[in-house]
Write a structure and sequence with these properties.
- The chain has about 280 residues and is α+β, with helices and mostly antiparallel strands.
- It is about 45% helix and about 15% strand.
- It is built from nine helices and seven strands.
- A five-stranded antiparallel β-sheet has the order 4-3-7-6-5, sandwiched between helices. A two-stranded antiparallel sheet has the order 1-2.
- Strand 3 and strand 4 form a beta hairpin.
- Helix 2 (about 30-35) crosses helix 3 (about 40-55).
């Protein structure tokens, strides 16, 4: 066994609390957080006080539950933005915006779903309530549809057996899709699929077109496209997003926005080593 370098044990112990929060689907009570981290509530509380001062953790004053704070988000976004695929994509957004004149964004799959990690507004930007770190809905956003379609069926696996380098995406996606479908049903949304059969058909269309689109769905009067970017193994690594007001946004599948966006995503996939269709 190689010799381990000396470290600070208390930092490693406290980090287990952050690990539990990052793996949790939501905020946690102190007793549950401490138990999951394998420590007493009193000990966990001392760490959480320090983490709150550093803004790594926040506490809801109403429920007293703990969750990850803004500093944790900044660290996560910084890490994601340093991925080679995101770096390369960011370099291409400027020329692409000049070509299509619409707001562009980049999204990757985070702990809770497709997450916005970069955002560039065009001069004619439409006002939207989106921020870096926002997790996009799977069924009512072009970003969510793109990730749902291409994570469930990697581009390199059509007719081939995909190497088991990652957990089965379908195992992660199906529960999320069912939960969102149930929420949309309770809200009586008419602009999204109503059954899993309709979801399957919609995702098949996204795969067939190689592009996801929503029109007047996520936000009133707004349309958007999301194009997938694949790595050398055919796995989806990010989505390139274009969105804008229907007053000046071409929503046609073969229009002035879709064609350049899809071409940019294909070129980036090729630069990352993807050789599939």
């Amino acid at each position: 066994m190689p010799a381990q370098r000396a470290g600070i044990q208390s930092v490693e112990v406290g980090f287990s609390l952050l690990q539990v929060l990052s793996a949790s689907p939501g905020a946690l009570m102190l007793r549950d957080l401490a138990a999951a981290a394998g420590m007493s509530a009193a000990k966990a509380h001392r760490y959480l006080v320090s983490f709150q001062r550093l803004e790594l953790v926040t506490q809801d004053p109403g429920t007293t539950r703990y969750d990850l704070g803004p500093a944790a988000l900044k660290l996560g976004l910084a890490s994601l933005s340093r991925l080679d695929s995101v770096k390369l994509a960011r370099q291409r957004l400027g020329p692409l915006m000049e070509q299509i004149g619409q707001t562009l964004a980049l999204a990757v799959w985070g702990n809770q779903g497709p997450t916005i990690v970069h955002w560039e507004e065009s001069p004619q930007a439409v006002t939207v309530n989106l921020r870096l770190g926002d997790v996009m809905p799977l069924l009512s956003s072009a970003t969510g549809l793109c990730f749902s379609a291409f994570m469930a069926q990697p581009a390199g696996s059509r007719g081939e057996k995909t190497p088991p380098t990652r957990p089965p995406a379908q195992d992660r996606l199906t529960p999320l899709l069912r939960d969102e479908l149930a929420r949309m049903h309770k809200l009586a949304r008419k602009d999204v699929p109503k059954t899993m059969a309709e979801v399957t058909a919609l995702l098949e269309e996204v795969r067939r077109r190689g592009l996801a689109r929503v029109v007047d769905t996520l936000l009133p009067g707004v349309a958007g496209f999301c194009a997938p970017v694949f790595d050398a193994d055919g796995h989806l690594v990010l989505g390139m997003v274009a969105m804008g007001s229907l007053a000046n946004f071409d929503p046609d599948w073969d229009g002035a926005v879709a064609r350049p966006l899809a071409a940019a995503a294909r070129q980036l996939s090729a630069d990352l080593g993807f050789t599939g269709a």
